[in-house]
Design goal:
Helix content is 83%, strand content 0%. The protein is mainly alpha-helical and 421 residues long.
Amino acid sequence: MTSARSAFVLLFVLMVFNYLDRTIVATMFVPLKAEWGVSDRELGFLASVVPLTIAVCAIPLSIVADRWSRLRAIVVMALAWNGATIGAAFATDYASLLAMRALVGVGEAAYGPTCAALLAALFPREQRSTVLGAFFLASVLGALIGMLLGGAIVSPWGWRAGFWAAGLPGMLLAVALLVMRRPQWDVGPTPTPAREKRAAIWVGLGRLLTTRTVLLTCIGGALQLLPAAVIFAWMPAYLEREAAFSPQAAALTSAGIILASGIGIVAWGHLADRRQRHHRCGRLQVSIVGALVAGTLLTVAFALLAPGALQIALIAAGAGAVGSAVGPVNAVVIDSAPPQLGATAAALANTIANLLGFAVGPLLAGVLSDRFGLPVALIATSLLCLPAAGAFALATLTYAHDAAHVDAPPAPPAARRAASR
């Protein structure tokens, strides 16, 4: 195995543990509520606090990684989030557990972007799309394993054992990465003066925030991913409460729904690329259809069907349709941004998705559940796919102009001066 492939394998497996540590807490909601008497709002915040801290810390910590050492930053981040996961096993009350979960988010914040930059430097340019696409599939695998592992461990041995099982292997893998590292893995960007870096960041963000297609697409993607975040966090508790599933059966069923969402990401993404070949707004059109399908299927499943096989099948199909936004949203955002701002545009989309989708979703569902019940909370959050479709529809009105503006060659200085008069 080549050095680059060895690095990919280690980083991929660590990415699996990254999402495993995020997801496993969903299998602990029922025993935590029974032991500490916490509200559903508080349980939801245990899931929301991780993407919230990721959204806040991702950009500054990514800058630190670029200016220090990507490989060393990756090892430190992995040790931090796995250490915080193990630390959660020692929590004595809700506040201490919430603090450990927040530290998990801090540790994970820049892991994905830093690994993407490192792998892009290690592999040839013509292989980057394949390599990075394969790397981020680890997120679905990690979420799936988190559900299965939690279901297998939490019920017989308790929720503290679940945190040990999630954090200890990741901690050992981080140490293995440090021991097995190769000098050629520790690559970094071309050195740039700090003042120029700061100026480029602020100018880039300002330009993106004034591009209507970018903003509308990012908001639509976040609104559509919010129901997915709710399902991932609350599905095990819903099945245990409403369908009288055992913890193991609830976790296994939830893992199947997560797998369906991963399949949907790939299938809908392929459909969006095919549609894009024949229509300039093809990706956005597919995103609109996917949002409408997801909202309809999930709302019907939670509002009209009793817990059972048919309901679970519709939820799985709806989760797959929710995934229709993942690939097209990132592609449209990058298409609408200047080439030199592609990475910044993707980071902006990720930050908005974490803030408005993954951070808000589980907490919002918990608040609604405390007041109206968990089924109503799931119905209400599923309906947010409909305004997501509206945001994508509005983006079709500006996409052609913004993409053409990006593709157009820059005007000569004399022409720019004349246009500004």
